[in-house]
Design goal:
Layout lengths: L1 H27 L21 E4 L7 H13 L1 H14 L3 E6 L7 H13 L7 H16 L1 E8 L6 E7 L4 E6 L5 E6 L5 E3 L5 E5 L16 H22 L2 E7 L1 H6 L3 H4 L3 H20 L13 E7 L9 H14 L15 H36 L5 E6 L7 H20 L5 H8 L17 H5 L18 H4 L6 H33 L4 H10 L13 H10 L4 H31 L10 H35 L5 H10 L5 H27 L2 E7 L8 H6 L3 E3 L4 E4 L5 E4 L19 E6 L3 H4 L4
Antiparallel strand pairs: 1-5, 2-11, 3-4, 3-8, 5-6, 6-7, 9-10, 12-13, 12-16, 14-15
Helix pairs in contact: 2-3, 3-5, 5-11, 6-10, 12-13, 16-19, 16-21, 16-22, 19-20, 19-22, 20-21, 20-22
C-alpha cells in the first residue's frame, strides 16, 4: 500500500507541475480567452433581440426567384439542369452500421422502409427527395432539410426539403450562438431546432453562411442575351423583309393645286397638301399583300430592305454569348450541344473537373440525408449510424484503368520477388485480402506474343543526333540500316554490361568455392604434361563437374536474362526493318508487327540464340579456368583474372553478338513483311562478295527460290543447311549465321521469269 500511495503522490505532484507550467506559459504568452475579431455584420452595441446576418444583395430571395425562372425558361439553362440531375442522381447504396462497425440489419430494414415513405410531397421517396436537394443546391448554392417527428417523438413523419432562401441566420446577443431562424407571417422570427433542421451551404464566403449559387452568373449573361436578341429581332424586321418605299413629288402636288385653293393663301395651300399626303398614306396602309395598285406620276414607289440590305454579322456575338453561358452553367460545351474541338487528354480532364463539381454537391446531399436518417434511428432508440454512398461516375477509360492496374500488380510482383515485401502484404494491396497460395515462379519459356502485347502500339527507338552507328551494319543496304545500326551500338553496350555482370557473378562464386578438392587436383596433375587441350574432351570430367556445380550453377537464370535482353533488342530491329521493307513495296501497306507468326519466330530465334550464346560462355569459362589449373599453382586471383581477360566477356564478343542478332532480326522482319505484302513470290540469294565472305555463302549467290522455300547453304563442315533468308538460325549452325551480311533480292508478282533463271 505504501508503494501505491507513493505512486499516487508522485503522479499528483507531476500533474500539478504540468498545470502550473502550462498556466505560466499562458500568462507569459499573454493569451486571452474569447474571440478577438468580429464578422462584418456584427455591431459592437446591439439593443435588439439578435444580430441578423444579412444576405448578399445578389443572393436574396428575389434574386433566387429570378434565377429559378430563368433556369426553367432559358433553353441552355434547362439543358444544364437536365444533365446535372441525371448525372448527380444515378443511384445510391444505403448501409447501417453499429458503433462496433458491424452491420445493423434491423436498422437497415427500418431506414429502407422510411426511404419509401418520406418526401411524400414529391411522390418518389428519398430518391426523388435527393433530386429536389440536388436541384436546390445547384440553383441556390445551399440545401436545407427538416425532419418532422410525431407527437410521441418516437418516429419520423416525413423529411421536408426547405427552400434555403426562406431561412436566415442571426447571432443571439446574450449567448453569441448563431441561430437558424425563419420569418413568420406576423413578422417575428422562429428559432429552428438545429437537431432537426439541417442547412448546408456550398462554397460559403467568409462571414457568409448562406452559400454561393454555382449558376448565379447566368443572370448577367441571360439579361445580356435577351437585349441582344431584341436588337437582332429589330434588325431582322427592318432588314429581313422587303417593304415599299413611297415618295411624293412636292413639285407635282403644288403644280396640281386647284386655283381656288391658291388664292386663299399659304395656310390653305399647306392644309391641302397635308390632307393630300394623309389620304395617300391611308390608301397604302389599307392595301392587302396581294392587292394591285396604280398611282399618278407624282407618287414614286421603290423597294427597300430584304436581300438588298446588309446588316452586321451576329455570329461572332452569339458565339461569345454561348461561351459565357457554358461557363455560367458550369457545363461542358458538348453537354449543351456545342461541338468544340479538343484533344482526348483535354476532354478527359474537363470531364473529370465537371464530375468533381457534381460530386461536391453529392457530398453535401449525402451529409444532410445521413443526418436525417441518424435522427430517425435515434428516436427509435438505436445507436447505429446510416451511411449513404452515391454510385461513382466513371471519369477514366476502362482500358486505361486496366493498364494502370496491371502495372501496379507487376510492381508488387517485383517487390515480392526482390524480397522487399511478403506475399500477404502484396495480396492485400492488390486484391484486399491475404494471399491464398504461394507465389508462382515465372515460366522459363515465356510466349513472344505475351511479351510483345505488353505494349500494343508500335515502339520506335528514341535516338539522338550523336547516337553512333555500328560501322559493320552501316555498310549494308536498305532504308532500315541507319536506325538498326544505332540500335546495334546500344545493344552491344547492353550485352557488354550483361557479360560483365556474368563474369563478376562467376568470380564471386570462385571465391566462395575456394580451391578445387584434392581428387580434382590429382586429375589436373595427371594432365599437366599433356599437350592436347584442343576441346573439352581433353579436360578431366571431375574438373568440369566441379566448375558446373560451383561456378556455372544458374544456367536457367542466365538464359532468362539473355532472353529478356535479347528479345527486346531483336524485336525493335525486326519491326523497323519490316516497316521500311513493306513501304518499299507499296507505301500504302502497313507492316503488322503484332502478327502471331512474326512474334513467334522472334521468340524462337531469341531462345535458340541465347542457348548458343550461353553455351559458348560456359565452354569459355571451363577452358579459361582449365588453362589456369593446367599451368599449375592454381589460385583464385589467377582464375579471376583469367575470366576477366577472356574474350567471352569482352566488348568484342558483345559487339559480335549484337551484330549477329540485330542483322538477323532485321532479315526476319524483311521476310515476314514480304510475306504479309502478298506481292512477293520469290527471292534470290545475294552474298556480300567481300574478302571475309564464307565460301558456302559465295557459292550460294544467285540461288533462286520461291518465298516459302529455303535456300540451301554449305556450312564449315561442307554440309548443306536450309535457310529461309540470310541470318535464319532456325535450322542453321552458328558458323552459317554469325556476322553474316548476305541478303536476298525479292521477286515480285509479274516477275515469274526471274524464278526460272531469267534476268
Amino acid at each position: 500500500m505504501r508503494l501505491i500511495d507513493g505512486f499516487k503522490a508522485w503522479r499528483a505532484e507531476r500533474q500539478f507541475k504540468k498545470f502550473t507550467r502550462n498556466l505560466s506559459h499562458s500568462i507569459n504568452s499573454c493569451l486571452e480567452s474569447g474571440r478577438q475579431t468580429h464578422e462584418k455584420w456584427e455591431k459592437q452595441f446591439s439593443w435588439y433581440e439578435g444580430i441578423m446576418i444579412n444576405r448578399n444583395e445578389f443572393r436574396n430571395k428575389d434574386v433566387m426567384e429570378s434565377l429559378k425562372i430563368i433556369r426553367d425558361l432559358n433553353p441552355d439553362a434547362s439543358m444544364a439542369i437536365w444533365n446535372f440531375l441525371r448525372l448527380s442522381n444515378n443511384g445510391h447504396e444505403l448501409e447501417c452500421q453499429k458503433p462496433t462497425g458491424s452491420n445493423d440489419k434491423q436498422g437497415l430494414d427500418y431506414i429502407n422502409g422510411l426511404a419509401k415513405r418520406v418526401g411524400a410531397l414529391y411522390g418518389g421517396g428519398v430518391d426523388q427527395l435527393i433530386n429536389v436537394l440536388n436541384l436546390t443546391g445547384f440553383t441556390q448554392g445551399a440545401i436545407c432539410l427538416e425532419v418532422e417527428l410525431n407527437e410521441g417523438l418516437n418516429d419520423v413523419v416525413d423529411f421536408h426539403a426547405v427552400d434555403p432562401s426562406t431561412v436566415d441566420f442571426r447571432k443571439d446577443k446574450e449567448t453569441g450562438e448563431v441561430q437558424l431562424v425563419q420569418k413568420q407571417s406576423d413578422g417575428t422570427y422562429k428559432v429552428l431546432n438545429r437537431e432537426q433542421v439541417f442547412y448546408l451551404p456550398f462554397d460559403p464566403d467568409i462571414g457568409d453562411p448562406y452559400g454561393r449559387s454555382p449558376i448565379l452568373p447566368l443572370l448577367q449573361i441571360v439579361f445580356f442575351q435577351v437585349e441582344v436578341l431584341k436588337d437582332l429581332k429589330a434588325v431582322a424586321h427592318n432588314q429581313g423583309h422587303a417593304r415599299l418605299d413611297i415618295s411624293i413629288a412636292e413639285e407635282a402636288i403644288i403644280k396640281n393645286i386647284p386655283q381656288e385653293i391658291k388664292v386663299k393663301g399659304t395656310q390653305a395651300i399647306a392644309e391641302y397638301a397635308n390632307t393630300f399626303v394623309q389620304s395617300i398614306q391611308k390608301q397604302f396602309s389599307q392595301m392587302k399583300a396581294d392587292d394591285n395598285f396604280f398611282h399618278p406620276d407624282f407618287i414614286k414607289v421603290d423597294m427597300v430592305g430584304g436581300t438588298a440590305g446588309k446588316s452586321m454579322d451576329a455570329k461572332a456575338l452569339i458565339n461569345i454569348i454561348n461561351q459565357q453561358l457554358v461557363s455560367a452553367l458550369k457545363q461542358l460545351p458538348i453537354l449543351l450541344g456545342r461541338n468544340e474541338g479538343t484533344t482526348e487528354t483535354h476532354g478527359t480532364v474537363q470531364w473529370q473537373i465537371y464530375v468533381a463539381g457534381i460530386e461536391s454537391i453529392q457530398r453535401g446531399v449525402k451529409r444532410v440525408i445521413e443526418r436525417a436518417y441518424n435522427v430517425a434511428l435515434q428516436v427509435q432508440g438505436r445507436q447505429s449510424k446510416a451511411r449513404l454512398t452515391f454510385n461513382k461516375l466513371r471519369t477514366t477509360d476502362r482500358f486505361q484503368d486496366a493498364q494502370a492496374e496491371q502495372i501496379e500488380t507487376n510492381i508488387w510482383i517485383a517487390r515480392v520477388q526482390q524480397g522487399w515485401a511478403d506475399n500477404n502484404e502484396a495480396a492485400n494491396e492488390v486484391v484486399g485480402h491475404d494471399a491464398v497460395a504461394e507465389p508462382q515462379a515465372p515460366i522459363s519459356t515465356s510466349s513472344a506474343i505475351a511479351r510483345s502485347r505488353r505494349v500494343q502500339v508500335k515502339r520506335q527507338p528514341k535516338t539522338r543526333a550523336d547516337d553512333a552507328e555500328d560501322e559493320y551494319v552501316r555498310e549494308m543496304q536498305g532504308d532500315w540500316v541507319p536506325e538498326v545500326a544505332i540500335l546495334t551500338t546500344k545493344a552491344a553496350d547492353d550485352f557488354y554490361n550483361l557479360l560483365q555482370n556474368q563474369v563478376e557473378t562467376y568470380i564471386s562464386r570462385l571465391e566462395e568455392a575456394d580451391t578445387p578438392p584434392t581428387r580434382v587436383l590429382v586429375d589436373i596433375h595427371r594432365f599437366m604434361y599433356s599437350n592436347n587441350r584442343k576441346d573439352l574432351s581433353d579436360i578431366p570430367k571431375s574438373f568440369i563437374d566441379w566448375i558446373k556445380s560451383n561456378i556455372l550453377t544458374d544456367e536457367g537464370e542466365q538464359l532468362e536474362l539473355w532472353d529478356a535482353a535479347g528479345f527486346d533488342w531483336i524485336e525493335q530491329s525486326a519491326k523497323i526493318a519490316g516497316m521500311y521493307n513493306i513501304m518499299e513495296i507499296d507505301t500504302e501497306l502497313v507492316f503488322d508487327d503484332t502478327n502471331d507468326d512474326f512474334l513467334r519466330s522472334l521468340s524462337d530465334r531469341s531462345r535458340r540464340d541465347v542457348e548458343l550464346i550461353q553455351g559458348v560462355t560456359d565452354e569459355r569459362v571451363i577452358m579459361a579456368l582449365w588453362d589456369v589449373a593446367f599451368e599449375g599453382q592454381y589460385n583464385i586471383t589467377k582464375a579471376a583474372n583469367a575470366l576477366r581477360e577472356d574474350f567471352a566477356f569482352s566488348k568484342g564478343r558483345a559487339r559480335t553478338i549484337a551484330r549477329t542478332e540485330m542483322v538477323g532480326a532485321a532479315r526476319t522482319g524483311q521476310w515476314h513483311s514480304d510475306k504479309q505484302s502478298g506481292m512477293v513470290i520469290g527471292k534470290i540469294w545475294r552474298s556480300a562478295q567481300q574478302d571475309r565472305t564464307r565460301d558456302g555463302h559465295r557459292e550460294a549467290d544467285g540461288q533462286r527460290k520461291t518465298l516459302d522455300e529455303p535456300f540451301y547453304v554449305q556450312n564449315a563442315n561442307e554440309e548443306f543447311e536450309p535457310l529461309m533468308y540470310p541470318g535464319d538460325s532456325s535450322k542453321a549452325s552458328a558458323d552459317n549465321v554469325i556476322n553474316c551480311r548476305c541478303w536476298y533480292k525479292r521477286i515480285l508478282e509479274g516477275e515469274e521469269h526471274l524464278l526460272e533463271g531469267g534476268e
